[in-house]
Fold DNA replication complex GINS protein PSF3.
Amino acid sequence: MEDYYDIDSILAEDQKVKCVFQDEVPGLSWLEGGYDDVLRARSKVDLPFWLAREIIDHPEGVVPLDLETPEFFGAKVRNGLRAEATMVDLPKLCPQFFRFGIHFLHLVDDASLSKVLAQAFKARLQTTMDHAQSGGNKDFTDYLSRLDETERELYKAGLESCSSLHQWNNQSLGRIRSASEMVLKRKYGQ
């Protein structure tokens, strides 16, 4: 379970999802802009994911609700991710694409989606780290614009790691002393 105060998790769970209420539900007509007191059966309502999850996970389970798979997890996007994962512009689909995918898959059993997301993430991560290892010297703005927020954070971490390694290799972070030098220093106070 993610940290309750994690802003990235909060933003991911704010994604709207289509929900289909199976039965009439008293007191929820306002969700679809109705004025009467009852939300009709088979009503489709766009709800933030966090609210849909709370309704589904309600301890009494009194509201039968089905989640529809968002379009950005549909067949067209899945095929694009299978064909060339690095070319799919994820922020246009969902800024928190992979993080939302994790939350969504906790509620919905979709082995195909899980497999596609895992393979796409691995492929994209490899390319992202390749770009980070180049030190950001080249113009990768087109590629970077297609990264979701999780990937952007990983790219930044890769850049920082590469920079630290480069500094260490150039001995600008300090010199590592050999064991014999350390013994001599202790013994003779050098």
In short: The mean pLDDT is 84. The domain at 1-68 is CATH 1.20.58.2050 (Methane Monooxygenase Hydroxylase; Chain G, domain 1).
